[in-house]
Specification:
The chain has helices spanning about 1-10, 20-40, 50-55, 75-90, 95-100, 100-110, 145-150, 160-170; strands spanning about 10-15, 40-45, 65-70, 125. The chain is mainly alpha-helical and about 170 residues long.
Length: about 170
């Protein structure tokens, strides 16, 4: 699998797993940061988990972040009732409050883990076509913070665009 391939090219891989205790998670993060001082390291976690929302990677501790998908939860009867409840309070905005916006907050939290000060720089690759969807009902750019909207580039399956942007990013001092 992917982790085996990463180990073959001498990249230390760290995976946040379900059921890890806080102590185990903290130890894994310490090992990831220490490993990254000597060579390239890969940290894998889920959006909405400890790594993506509760851990900061300031400076050069995390220089590239990949996000895969937008973490929409499964729709449940309880969620439907919450949507109806908020529809009544906020004039039809229940779906957005309960279901539409929270995944985008998780995406933003995950993407921003390496941005903890004005001096930090992170190359972010957010992989989900819904991010740049142009259809009126599906447009989601407004859900992203301005710092992401102002710097977003569309690759549309062209990996050369990502490679070129990464090379430019890591060469520049901006």
């Amino acid at each position: 699998g992917l982790l085996d391939e990463m180990n073959m090219i001498r990249v230390d891989s760290f995976v946040s797993k379900a059921g890890m205790s806080s102590t185990e998670n903290d130890q894994m993060v310490i090992e990831f940061i220490s490993s990254g001082l000597e060579k390239q390291s890969l940290l894998i976690g889920v959006m909405g988990g400890r790594i993506s929302e509760g851990t900061d990677f300031a400076g050069e501790k995390m220089e590239v972040i990949f996000t895969l998908g937008v973490p929409y939860p499964p729709q449940t009867p309880e969620m439907k009732h919450r949507i109806e409840y908020f529809d009544g309070i906020f004039k039809g905005r229940g779906w957005d409050i309960v279901y539409g916006s929270p995944p985008w907050h998780k995406l933003t939290q995950a993407a921003g883990r390496g941005l903890r000060s004005l001096n930090d720089r992170v190359f972010i690759v957010a992989m989900d076509e819904r991010i740049l969807c142009r259809a009126k009902k599906m447009n989601n750019l407004h859900r992203l913070p301005l710092w992401m909207r102002d710097n977003i580039k569309e690759a549309s399956g062209d990996s050369d665009i990502i490679v070129n942007a990464a090379e430019l990013f890591f060469r520049s001092d901006i």
